[in-house]
Every structure is written in C-alpha cells, then in structure tokens.
Amino acid sequence: MLNTGCKVEEMLNKRESISVFNIPFNSTRKRATSAVKNPRLGNKVSVFCKGGPDVVLEFCDSIINAEGEEDDLTPEMKKDILNNIVKNYARKSYRTILVAHSSYSDTEWKNLASQNNDFATEDDKATVEAGLTLVGIFALQDPLRDGVPAAVDQCHKSGIMVRMCTGDIIDTAVAISKEAHIIPESVDPEKGGYTCMTGKDFREAIGGLINEETDEKDDDGNPITIDKVAKQDVFDRITADLRVLARSTPEDKYLLVTGLRAQGKVVAVTGDGTNDAPALSKADVGFAMGDENASKVARKASDIVLMDDNFCSILTAIKYGRNVYDNVKKFLQFQLTVNVVALFIVFAGSVIFAEETLTSVQMLWVNLIMDTFAALALATEPPKPSLLDRSPQSRTEHIVDKQMWRVIIGQSIYQVAWLLVILLAGKDIFNLPFNSDTEFITSNAQIGNTAQFEYECNKTALYTIVFQAFVFMQVFNQINCRKLGQDLNIFADFFNNWLFIGIVTFTFVV
Question: Which domain holds residue 330?
C-alpha cells in the first residue's frame, strides 16, 4: 500500500488527469478500459483495464513483481495465476478482478490513434488493450442475504427449481450456489456432467437460437417468426440436471427461458439490468430486483418489482399468487353451485306450478349476495404458509378440477333434493293448505275473495320458504367453499378473516 500522507478525497480533488475515452463494462467483454492523459507528464497517456482475470490476463504481456519491477509474463505464469490464485479465491465464493495498465508517450499515442481510425469506434478503442502489464488481483465478496439458503430450500420444497445464471467464473459460481443451497456440497464441476456449465459450452451444445416461421401472419401479411432452440432434444437432456450457468451472457439467459417454455414449463426470471429485459419479457413472470437498483428498461419489461431487492421476497410473491389462484377457484366452486341450483329450481317450479318459484326481485337479491358479497368474502382469504408446501399447478391443468366438480355436484344434488321436498311437500310440512286446481266459485263473493286471498298467501309463504332455504344453504355453502381439495375441516382458521365473518353475518341478518 502506497502511503501518500493524505486522504483519498484530497488525492481525488488534486488529480490533474484528463479522460481521453472509456470503454464501459458489459457482459460480452467482461472488462472495462479507461485512457487518461496527464499534462504534468508531458501529455503521457495511461491505459487502465479491469475485469475478469481469465479475460484481461489474455491481454497482459508483463507483470509487476513483489519488488515493484516489471517482468515478462509467461504462459506458465498465467496458468499458475488462474489455477492457484484465482481459483483459490473462487472456491471461497470470492469474485476476483484483475487490474492492468499500460503507458504511451504523446507521439506513440498519436501514431496509434492514426492507425485505428482515431479511436472512432469501440473496436478501435479496444486496440489499446494490447500489451498490458498486470498490476494485481482484487478479491471481493458479496455475502448472501440472511434467509436466502432457507428461501431456496423452501423453493425446492414447493416444487420450484432454482437455476443460477451469473457472469462469474464457474468456480465462484459453484461456491456461491453451494452456499445458497442451489446445488449440494457433493457436486464437483470438474467431474463433468450438466449440473454446472459455462455459457459458452451451453450455447455450443444446444446449437444456439434459431428463428422459425409460423403459419400465422402479421398485419402486413408477413409470416410471424418465433425463437426456438436449435437442438431442443439436447437442451432437454442438459436442463434436466442444469442448476448453474457460469460466465453466461443475457443471451444465454434468454436462450434458457426460450427452451424451458418450449418444454411447457412455467418460467420466472429475476434481473435488474437493461440486458436482462429480453429474458424478463420472455418469461411467464419477470421479477425486477429492486426499484432503485433495477434499470427502467428492466422494470418495464418485468411483471413484478421486488422493492427490497431480496430473493426471499420471491416466496412472498409466490404465496400471494397461489392464494389469489385458490381464491378464484373457491369463488368458482361456490358460484357454479349457486347457478346450477337456481336454474333447476326455477325450471322445476315452472313445470310443477306453472309459474315462477323465484321472482325476478329474489333472483336479483341472490345475484347481489352470491356474486358481489361472496366474491368479496372468498377473495379476501389471507394466504397461509402451507401454500408453499405443495407443488405448482401445471400449465395444462383445468382451473375447475375433479375435486371441485365433486363438491359442486354433491352440493347441487343435496340442495336440489331439499328444495324439491319443500316445493312438493312443503304445504303439508308447514300446514299451508292450497291446491293449484282450486276453483274460487261461490255464491258469496266475500267468501270467494277470502279463499283466494288465503290461497295466494299460503302459496307465497311456501315460495318464501323455498327462497329462504335456498339462500341459507348458499350461506353455509359459502363457509364450505373456504376449503379446497382434501381439507375437510372447513372451520380451520375461520377467525383469520373478519371480513368474511362480517359478510356472512350481514347476509344472514338481512
């Protein structure tokens, strides 16, 4: 460490270097380069390059030794640096950055510029990266957030496969993935297999991406093309085991999403960079990691923005997503039962009594309490941790499954049977004597009017009992529809949703 006797801020404020140009870091180059000129040194130009050791090392011809002198950098030394220093840090989950530099006199710089189009393009600028001198290697560690390993374990328990795509070298990627429980400790990438691969090997194995025309036409009549993996069968074999994709590019991420969706799988992608936008938009669900850290392009391409930039929040999103899906199924289960019974009773009443059993006003009331209030009650069921203990729904699975049909048919038969009993035998059960064949013909007009009035009152009373029985059966079926599938205890967690209790009570009272 060079001790200058002043603070870093003071050194930065006193700098007199003038920036000539910068080549920013990107996922393809995996390095960044800056050229600066110092007027105090006779306009001497210094080039500084930083990036992945395996990339920048290829441009280095010399090295600064322990004594501060410049020595030649042989191929054997480069191999030793990668296999010992870099890999040693990588196995401890450190990310390494190699720093190198070179210097040009004013005359040399002008000659180099004239030979390379005056550094007009990025490729022209990249010519200054030749003949660098290795200065040092920095090892950086970004510790996992608390709870990430547990969150990954829960994802596995929930039937969600977690794959890591990173620009790190494979040794660092493997170390981090083991720490995050993405892969087990026993995995050794040097023994082969598809569990851990580099982006280059992955692309070469599956043949990259191709465009295929479809039978559909766009508005101009041109065939619509779709992206496909060149060798889908090879892709299927690889991704059955693939968990870590190291030294990957955004294109590799997009390629992975395209192939997985072709398998019929539901794919969620996380990302925060502009280059992640294609994969985020291609996925079924795109997560932009962080409102401030994520680029505007990534946020726009994603479906959900995780404000805390935390992988653990993905589980929260999954839990609420599954809860919304279940609540929709609960309402459908309830609503289909209501409609089946209502249609049958109206039809049966018309056949038996040749008139409406349920009036239009009553049907409007049923729609109000069974559509609006019931939807609100069942849609506000809070999520439970147990939602994460099951496997995800298949893309081809019906929203109204066999278990729901069993409940719908069973409840419909039960309700229709009791309502028919009331319709057919209600006048005897509730002592409401009337006969649809009664003729109101009598010598005394007052007696005839009274008999007809009693007839109408008794019939109206019976229809009211049918309506009330129908409504109360729906109220209790609403409680029954709080549960789906094999959960037989319909009163479990009953007092967790006070809005549901309030709506049921309101309906009961009114």
Answer: 321-509
